[in-house]
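ligand=pyridoxal-5'-phosphate
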Amino acid sequence: MSAVYFLSPLAADASEPAGGYLSTLRPGAEAVISLFDAGIVRGDGIFETLGVWDGHVQAEAAHLARLAHSAALLELPAPNLAQWSAALAHLAAELPNPGAGSIRLSLTRGVPGEGPSAWLVADVAPTDYPERREGIAVVTLQRGLSAFAAQETPWLLAGAKTLSYALNMAALREARARGAEDVIFVSTEGLALEGPTSSLLVLLDGVFVSPPREEAILAGTTVDDAFTWLRAQGHTCVYRELPAADLPRVSAAWLLSSLRLAAPLHTLDGVAVPRDREIDAALIAALAERTS
Ligand code: PLP
């Protein structure tokens, strides 16, 4: 099941239209996306994928804040967050409850001269991913990017969730060719960054560590919520530089993302990684149960 809606983006400071925000939504069957749209021709646009659990959109405020941040980095018109929020609520109501789903929203530069295009797609998602229990084999791959690219070379758009994910998909194919399932990207300085579709979290010397948000990574919403939960359990959590050379010393490691939630590593570059099964199960349950 997929529900598709096109949205006519309002200016960020526009007030609610007389017909309500939902009057700016059109079912997919009534609209088309032009083959001249910059999102299709050049991948010139941004997106977000949100998890929906038992009808609740998870980490909505964080995803919308990241959408606004990505829009600013690409110099796209700032999104009207109240409008997007109303659209998310409308699509979430079409997903199974109880059950899991995803909503992917996209905002592109549009057809030249016509302004941005926007659409949302809701889909049913699995409630269970075997890799949450079984773990995953991961390889480190060079990202070819400085960890400081966001500051030094902003036109590389590090930190923006752009539609141009061909590179990320190529990295996952490379992992499969090497007999693994996922990737940890490493910067040109040798710092561990993130996965192609996930954030990195490790337990090192008794502290939960994830690379800093100002590095050339996407600021993950799931890792933020994982830190909130872990801190509530009394654990110390820090965003800090993580040399790839330290990865063989971790007591446990996970790749975190909105739908799969937390996938524990069982192997890194062919070497076994310790598991913390108590944390695995409790962390996944806590992330799944988020109601906002
Ligand atoms: N890093 C990258 C490159 C991603 O594509 C994603 C998710 O798609 C993440 C990190 C994790 O972000 P989130 O936890 O908000 O899903």
